[in-house]
Amino acid sequence: MGLLSLAIFKTRIPDRAREPGSGNDCQPLRGPERPEAIVAMNDLVAMLVLEAAEQVGLQIPNDLGIAGFDNLDSAVANNLTTVAQRPYEIGSEAARLLLQRIHGDKDANKQYSCPRN
Question: What is the mean pLDDT of each run of 10 residues along the chain (117 residues)?
């Protein structure tokens, strides 16, 4: 099936208030139509996907690849793929470009690339 849209999956991540193993929460991870990989919006969601995958007996990364963003220690400790970002630098550059546009600079850069770590 390839990548599963997290927008579809995120409503089905296990609800911690439900009884463990109830089965309905992890339906997108069961059967032949399950995804090969999931790209989560951040590492916290990736950790919840990991929990759901473990509930249905999937082995990470052999059965399912999981990636998130933020480079949290907990994601790294659980061998999840994670993308390190520079939120301060990204926000600062976005604010600078916005102020340039507000002050009439129509040629302000529309694209910015942060340097790699």
Answer: 44 45 62 85 89 89 90 84 86 88 79 66
